[in-house]
Amino acid sequence: MRLIRMLLVSALALSSVNAFADTKDVARLTQLLEKSQTLSARFSQLTLDGSGTQLQETTGQMQIQRPGLLRWHTDAPQEQLIVSDGKKVSLYDPDLQQVTVKALDQRLSQTPALLLSGDVSKISETFDISAKEAGDVIDFVLKPKGRDTLFDSLRLSFRRGTINDMQLIDGVGQRTNILFTGVKANEPIPASQFKFDIPKGADVIQE
Length: 207
What we know:
There is one protein chain. This protein has a single domain (about 10-205), classed as Clam (outer membrane lipoprotein receptor (LolB), chain A), CATH 2.50.20.10. The protein starts with 7 loop residues before the first helix and ends with a strand. By secondary structure, it is α+β, with helices and mostly antiparallel strands. Strands 7-8-9-10-11-1-2-3-4-5-6-12 form a 12-stranded mixed β-sheet. It is globular, with a radius of gyration of 18 Å. It is built from 3 helices and 12 strands. A hairpin with a 3-residue loop joins β2 and β3. The model is unreliable at about 1-20 (pLDDT under 50).
């Protein structure tokens, strides 16, 4: 977030089964994402390298509103603020007094946080999706179809129909685990949360 079949008959049979499974999994993920038009939660984020060594641990607060609106605020001492208004994404680093502004293009919309608030109808165009269910937990694994991606795989985990955690694995095996707590769905979020005013004196980088 990439079987060689010996017999053509087997290939056709397997591809039909897989297509049905993919369609079913996509429909289930779509249903779970679309039922939450807004989400707010605390998060704890842990990043490990390929050997399992901890690289970084952060906490913060996230708010999303479908489609495309996001506020992702990481607590001090590694404070950062990411705000998406649906057209552009602003990343503010208070320590550097620097703001980076990027257009919300397809590659950016594939980032894990923005996936939660993105256009659900387009997810299956960009990812191969599979699901596994155990008890009240269902895990979806998303693997990008294209090569120009920010990760090799992404797991979204729902518990009793509510987003619980996600795991991102990149091309060098680095893992980022994000756990959500205090999740609130479909509660009003002020529009001001998705607007970013550039702080006075901050350097601005347009990309």
